[in-house]
Amino acid sequence: MAEVDAKSLLDDEAEGGLVTAIGRFLPSQLSSTDLAEIQQARQSIGAAKSEKDAAALFPDASSRPCYQVYEHTCGPDYRWPAGVYYHFLGKSSAKEPPALRDVRICGVLQAVAIARNRLGGDFGLLLEFRDRLGQLKQWNMPCRLLAGRGDELQKALFDQGLDIHYAQRSRLAEYLCQQQPDRTVWITAKPGWFDNLYVLPDRSIGDSSDAVILQSEGNVNSNLYRQAGSLSSWQQQVAGLCPGNPYLLLMVSLAFCGPLLDKCHLDSLAIHIYGPSSQGKTSGMQVAASVWGEPKRFQRSWTATLNGLESAAVQVNDGLLCLDEMSKADAQDVSKSLYLLANGVGKQRATINGKAMAHQHWRVAILSNGEDSIEAHLNKAGIPVKAGELVRFLQLSVFGQHGAFDDLHDYGSGRAFAMALHQHTSQHYGTAGIAFLERLTRDPRDFAAYLDQCFRIFEQRFGPLSAQEARAARNFALIGLAGELATEYGVTGWPERIAMEAALICFNHWRQQRGTGELEPQQLVNALRQYVELYGDSRFTKTDDANRLHGERSGYWRPIELGRQWLFSTAGFKKAIGHADLALAVKMLIGQGVLKSGPNPKKHVTQAKVHGGSGWFYVIQFDDDHAG
User: Fold this and answer.
1) 592 CB neighbour count, 10 Å cutoff
2) What is the pLDDT of residues 125-165, one digit of tens each?
3) What pTM does this model have?
4) How many whole angstroms separate alpha carbon 215 and alpha carbon 155?
5) Structure confidence at residue 6 (pLDDT)
6) Measured between alpha carbons, how far apart are the two ends of the chain, in Å?
7) Consecutive H or E run containing 608
8) Burial class (CB in 10 A: 0-12, 13-18, 19+), 551
9) H or E element, residue 138
10) Dist CA 86 CA 58 (whole Å)
11) How open is the CA angle 118-124-128, to the nearest 5 degrees?
12) Are strands 319-324 and 364-370 parallel, antiparallel or unpaired?
């Protein structure tokens, strides 16, 4: 067709002007092939119009009752808005046939797939619709919401903005029960890893032939992982302020640890940052949270209930859990939460029929902060701190020349720097975590072996480590690994090695404030020392003192060259060590050189003369005890 675009004729036909379009050309310009194409186009468009008209027509009496979905205006004269309709027959009489009745239930609502979990349960329907503002949404509706009157289903759809005809809302469950889509998808009850995919509320990241979606009984909390700004702006305005500040480098590196826990065969990682107010603790948490989403949404409070904390951990499974202001929470609740959160297993619950429900499980990297250390916070309520809690929740006091900061990056003060971090993290967030996952999900390396290599860096730097120190060092090594990996992926924009060096610096700070070796022996020694400081004059007397105590007796004391030896009775010794196992406590105190072994190696007690007779005692001697 000389100088003629056949597609333009087709477009003109779509606008109803094919004859006019052809009239622009002389017959000599149109070949027989051109004319055949035009005729074919006319027939195709005519068929499409007929199909559209047929789709818009309401069913006749023989097809009723039924539900129909219309994506465009429909019905007689196309006067009815798009949506889901229920078509049925009205009452009939001897004189007149039944009237055709048509009621609109809601806007366009399609069931596009059947969803199920790997155990063949938790069936759902993947629904697709537009809310009242025209935003396209998908929601995996649990099929159990179709039971009963469907009130919970209606609440969820109302909450997500579906245009529902209020008077016909009760028909929603019946309509959805009749849907049988051909497509199937997998579901998971929590975000995080599903084989090689990383599932988030609004997307799945990674390569897989199977679709996976997150199951939810209400509105999917996709806002938790919302984004603002670009990766480049986050690198410049947030990550770019971290070099020179080991504390900030550690916070950002920690934020990338969640997705690595499973790949490194670890259950959890938890860091508690403590120190006086206005020292930069909250700024560090905001910087860490900005990796995944809006900080004010990502930060949770320690004042939540135990059930609330479980739910918060599940919502960020394989990710980052930020818990703010431990000092404001009840100490008893904190004590219960420490093991629960770090172990990644929820409380056992029962159904209404008394059957055991499945446990909640999660893997998270936890960042906590507060003005007090965990020991100080629990001790205020008289709750003893277990060594296992402090191994699971590593504590780090704020350190730096300006509170938590060393390099202020040309800001005039630590306060000005903290305010800049707050402003920048409220404008640039959520992009770094997604960029990290895009690379991690396609990285085939053995990260457990990679972590072993990083751990050896700590052993080379600090020498032999106790079992508890080694566990802590491995956690800090994971943080360093995560930061270096994010740098390798081009996410942070940092120079190489600074994330690992920050982890080494922070581990050294942790070790110095905690002390070397195992924690339980240190705790026992401190417990005995504190007991003597509190009751040395009221519950102990000199071995040759004839005066009787008027209150409770825990033992005696006798002078030695450098101070005193404390002779604890069995009852006094058990009271001093608290809930610790007696045999294990004796073994650890002997190892510390505090408990002097007696002639009987099995009993570890020594016979001593006291006023009025003799007895068997646990002999305690502190190396630096000069009390007189």
Assistant:
1) 17
2) 999 999 999 999 988 899 999 998 899 999 999 999 999 99
3) 0.75
4) 17
5) 42
6) 115
7) strand 606-610
8) exposed
9) strand 136-142
10) 10
11) 125
12) parallel
